Predict the structure.
Amino acid sequence: MKIGILQLNPVVGDLDGNATKIHAAALEAARLGADFCLTSEMALTGYPPRDLLLYGGFVDKARIVTEKLALNLKDGPPLLLGTVERNSTGQGKPVFNCALWCENGTISQVFRKTLLPTYDVFDEERYFEPAPAATPKGNILEFQGKTIAVTICEDAWNDKDYWDSRTYSRDPLDEASASNPDLIVNLSASPIFLGKQKLREDMLGSVAKKYSTQLVYANQVGGNDDLVFDGRSCGFAPDGTLVGRAPGFVEAVHIIDLNTLSANTIAEDDFSQEAETWQTIVLGTRDYVQKSGFAKVLIGLSGGIDSAVTAAVAAEALGTENVIGVLMPSPYSSQGSIDDSLELARSLGIRSMTLPIEPIMNSFETTLSEPFKGYPVDTTEENIQSRIRGNLLMALSNKYGAMLLTTGNKSELAVGYCTIYGDMAGGFSAISDVDKTGVFALARWYNDTIGPNIPEAIITKPPSAELRPDQKDQDSLPPYDILDAILELHIEHHNSMHQIVEKGFDQETVERVLKLVRFAEFKRRQAAPGIKLTPRSFGTGWRMPLACKREL
C-alpha cells in the first residue's frame, strides 16, 4: 500500500481555497501511485481557527465544503481529511475535531480526536468535545485488508512509556491496540519550536516500536499568526526506524510505500539552531504578511543588528522589491550607523529612504518647553525620539499600504528595553522570540551561509539605541550573555530568583532583571504579534496577569 501525505499550507478560514488545494494535491498523490491520502489536522479549516469555531455557520460550511470535496474526488483516491464537525448529541461542546473518510464520492466514516491539549499555545477544550468513551473499532479504519488506527495529533503524544508526566485518563493508542492495527496514522498540526523535529521523530519512532506497527505522520506546514508549522511529515517502520520524511517548511505531496519501506525518501534537513531559526522566521513572516493581505513591508533601519537581521529576513521572505528600509537619523545617530544602514540596503538590494528627525525633535522641544520647565532631561526625551520614528513609519505604512515590521528581540521585549508606541509600533515582529545573543549568531550564520549582506561593522559594534550621546545598551542592562542566560532560566524554565542565584548568578543582577520583566508586562500585552521559536515565547502561550503583585 502507498500512502500519500498531503503536507499543505492552508489559510485559516479559507474553506473553499483550502479544499481546492487539497483536491489538487490528492490528484497529484494519485498520479504518484497513492492508494489513499491523508491531510494534516484540520487541513480544511486551517489550524488554529480559534474563535471562528464559535460561529455555527463556519462549522456548517465546513461540512458542505467537505461533501463537495468528497464528490469531486469520486474518481480519485480515498481521502482521510482533517476538519471539524458539529456535535449533534446536545451534550458537551458543540464541535468535534475530527478526520473524515471520503471514498467513492461520500463521507463514510468519522474519527474524532480524543485528547484536547490546553498547555502552552493550545486551548482545544475551549472549543471541542472529546471523542466519546472508547468503543470497539471506534478509531479503526479497514482498507484494502489493512487495519488502520486513526489518531489526531495529541492522541499519539500520550505514551506513558515515553513521557514521565502525561496526565490524560485515556490513551487512544492503547485503545486502538486492541484491534492489532497494521498501521497507525496521525493527522497533526504541530507547531515548531527549535529542536522539536528530533523530539517528534524519537517519540513517534518509540510509538511504532512499542506497538510493532508502521506509523505515518502528516503535519501542517506554514505560518498562522504567531505559530509556524514546519511540515517534515514522516513514516516509521515497526522497529521504530525512520523510513521517510517530507521536506521542511514547504508544501509537499510525499508518498510512503508500506511495501518497500527502505525505498522511501528521507528529505535532507539542517537541524542546527540557526538554520531552523532562519527557515521558521522567513516562512512565518512571508505567510503572516501575505495571508493578511499585504505584499510590501517597511522597516526602520538604525544601523543595529536587529533591524539588519529583520531586513534580511524580509528580503528573503517577500523579495527585495517588496521591502523598504527607512533611515531616521537624529543628532545622536553616528555617521557609522547611517553608513552601515545604507550599505545594508545596497547589499540586500532593497529600496531605502532617509528622513532626518531633528526638525521634528525641535518642534516637540518647543511645544513642551513650558510644561517641562524645571524637570531634568531623562528617558522622556529619548522616548519622544522613538515615537517620532514610530509615527513616521506608520504614516509611510498607511500611505504605501505596506506592513511595518518591528525589529525588537526577545531580550528587549522581556525587560522592556523598548518604547511603546515608538519602536514597538508595527504589525508584525520576525525576531521577537530570538534573544540578543541569538540575533548575533543568526547574523553570522546568515553571512556565512546566504550573504554576506550584513556589514561586518553592524555585527561587531556594541549595541546602542543612540538616543543620547555615546549611549550603549550595557549602560542600562547587564551584558547580553548574562542577561539572556538569566532570562532563559526564568522564562523558559520557570526558575525563581532564588533558583537562578543558586546557579551562580549575582543576586542583585537577578533581582533587577526579574523586576524589569515584571514591569514590562503591559508593554508585551500591546506588542505586535511575533513568531514562536522557543517552548516558552511571548504570545498566545504567555498568560501573565497585568495588575498583580508577583514575587518569582
Q: What stands out?
A: The mean pLDDT is 93.
